[in-house]
Specification:
The complex is a heterodimer of chains A (102) and B (168). Chain A has helices spanning 6-26, 30-54, 59-89. With 102 residues, chain A is mostly helical.
């Protein structure tokens, strides 16, 4: 089978990143914003792995592993903040937390 | 391996679009899992089977399970879905959507104009990755462990119920 062209893989990563970016900008629910951030992180990882496959180096996969660890830490803190938001204001609206006062 | 790449790429794009547009959080989460599985297949076609397995185990497994647990704790119902529908008025998303579509068109134009670079299908073995990870990138491994510890402590501190909280 013919190999996967690098530019197609990078285009896919870019499109996925854009979809995540749209999600962050459009949605007001904090859960959806977190999910969109996950999509963007994943798209960045896809770009790393595609570039690593193009040059036959494992560095791209190592970077993906670091992105994975970062996403896990980010999700745990982010979801704890979501629980806190729900408990304080009783809503998941990101605008409810705009005052930044405890 | 370009046939599976096209199919799973299309699946990833469509399911990600569904994630961004759904009103029900659980539906969006299930679409996100589909998208992650499709990206895992893409990793496989790119010659990175170990990363494909990690994507399924950690992203689609662990991280999405955390999302599902938090959604269960929040106990969202029909009211939340209706609220979300009300928030998703066309005026809210037309502007960013058009801007992002322009960016996407620009990206595709640039990539179409550029000379095609073909990627080899030779696999990058997990052994090679492990040697890099615990050789030149060892400081990165240590920093990742610090980051995960900080995430653990932060989540514990933020989500703990200490005193009865007042609504600000």
């Amino acid at each position: 089978m013919p190999p996967v062209p690098l530019d197609l893989a990078l285009a896919l990563a870019g499109l996925l990143f854009l979809l995540g970016l749209v999600g962050v900008m459009v949605r007001r629910n904090v859960i959806f914003i977190l999910m969109s951030i996950e999509i963007m992180l994943n798209a960045a990882g896809l770009a790393f792995v595609a570039a690593g496959a193009r040059w036959q180096q494992a560095d791209g996969q190592v970077m993906f592993l670091f992105i994975l660890a970062m996403a896990a830490a980010e999700v745990s803190v982010g979801l704890a903040l979501v629980l806190r938001l729900q408990r304080l204001w009783g809503t998941l609206d990101a605008d409810a937390a705009s005052s930044l006062r405890g | 391996m370009s046939g599976p790449f096209y199919v799973s790429g299309a699946v990833a794009l469509v399911s990600t679009l569904m994630v961004v547009t759904r009103a029900n959080a659980v539906h969006a989460l299930l679409y996100l899992i589909v998208s992650l599985l499709a990206i895992s297949i893409i990793f496989y076609t790119l010659g990175a089977p170990f990363v494909a397995a990690l994507e399924v185990i950690i992203y689609a497994g662990a991280i999405m399970v955390v999302f599902v647990f938090v959604l269960m704790m929040l106990n969202l119902g029909v009211r939340a879905t209706a609220e979300e529908r009300a928030w998703l008025r066309p005026g809210m998303w037309v502007g960013p959507g058009v801007l992002a579509a322009v960016l996407a068109a620009e990206l595709i134009y640039t990539l179409v104009r550029a000379t095609p670079v073909s990627s080899a299908t030779m696999m990058v073995a997990p052994k090679q990755m492990g040697q890099l990870l615990f050789g030149p990138y060892f400081i990165g491994v240590e920093l990742a462990s610090f980051l995960l510890l900080a995430g653990l402590v932060g989540a514990l501190h933020l989500a703990r119920v200490s005193e009865p909280e007042k609504v600000a």
